[in-house]
Amino acid sequence: MAPRNIPATPAAASISTTASLINDALPSPSPAADIATKKFIQSRFNALLSSLPPSPIHPGSPAGRSLLLLPIPPAGTTMALLKAARVADVPTLDLVAPGLVVETADAAASIAAAAAAAAGQQQQRRFSVIGHRGKGMNALASADRRLQEVRENTVRSFNDAARFPVDFVEFDVQVTKDGCPIIFHDDFIYTEEDGKISRKRVTDLQLEDFLHYGPQNEQGKIGKPLLRKMKDGRMLNWNVQSEDALCTLQEAFEKVNPRLGFNVELKFDDYIEYQDKELTRILQAILKVIFEYAKDRPILFSSFQPDAAQLMRKLQSKYPVYFLTNGGTEIYTDVRRNSLEEAIKLCLGSGLEGIVSEARGIFRHPAAIPKIKESNLSLLTYGTLNNVPEAVYMQHLMGVNGVIVDLVPEITEAVSELIALPEPGPEVENLSNNQAAKGAATPNFSQCEISFLLRLIPELVQ
């Protein structure tokens, strides 16, 4: 079979243009392609590369990720060689022969390696979608109205999320001064009275005082107006399109769709050093409600507070405990919080079942995923990247077990289109590999789109 002619390439052509020309010039895939054809293609490709001037583009950028062709591979891998002009053009994540190409962008190569390793696992995984604070957190400063649709961490938000194919809702639990577990994210609660803004630490409030804030379920009753402080210091009225009253953990168990699992985040202030006695008091108050009202509902605990996560494992063994980490995207005085490696050590040393990482941490350090899997730990992620369907799909390919998301309708729809999920079973509360429900998980992205994502993701996480 004679190869088609490859048009001449101007010296100023880019690497991507070169790759495009090569792809246009390729013969159709054929297992019978002979060595002469492969030699011809490789010689023409090398000639095209040598005609290019040194690239002014930084080698770490998408446009600068060139590949070095190594010796001609065995018969049957011709198409892999031909398509390897750039990592963006690799036809599949697992069909390129070992030693065929060398990627100069470590991040993209590591992501591809993690995806290939996950694809090679024999056991199929259920990929779970978890609603963040219900149907999504409230981002009051965002121009996206979907992030102000329903009040976060309320019964209404949880039940709205239950209308979509989510396995769990995630929410934040704190304990009031009089010992009642309530659901609220922020450490402080703000209101305005007589033109003055006041704040109270949530855990310093009695339950009755806490429930006086915000919308009230009792007809004719008016609560204190809620404000929220932004990271930049601005104070905004906490208004959303669909309101509901603040609630307790007990109310959530009593009023939320029973098929929905609860990811209970044990919420603590990052700037307070807690003693074991105080942690024990808080966790026992939470466990008292859970043991009385959970019934058969799937439950998993998570916490950024390492001591709280360890203590929760000591206090009970019925429900899995996950360690929450920023995955190295932020640095804390407690070194256990500063990397995925430290998270793995903490989990293995304390008998925890899994890690919940900021999604950027996974993309920045994809080599940690095989270590997490080898340690028989489950891996979930959170963060704004999880509102991007392509980023969610890449995590599925890399071996992540589930994602915590804000845009519940959009991401559940995207996941259902991209991944054929097995039906959830009674073991859905444990998302680890060993407990995963059996079933197919079939990718529906084209290989060209997957390759594009390998270039895109490292740029998103900078």
From TrEMBL:
Its EC number is 3.1.4.46. The keyword Hydrolase applies. GO terms for biological process: glycerol metabolic process. It is an enzyme of class 3 (hydrolase). Belongs to the glycerophosphoryl diester phosphodiesterase family. PANTHER family: GLYCEROPHOSPHOCHOLINE PHOSPHODIESTERASE GPCPD1, GLYCEROPHOSPHORYL DIESTER PHOSPHODIESTERASE. This is glycerophosphodiester phosphodiesterase. It comes from Urochloa decumbens. The lineage of its organism: Eukaryota, Viridiplantae, Streptophyta, Embryophyta, Tracheophyta.
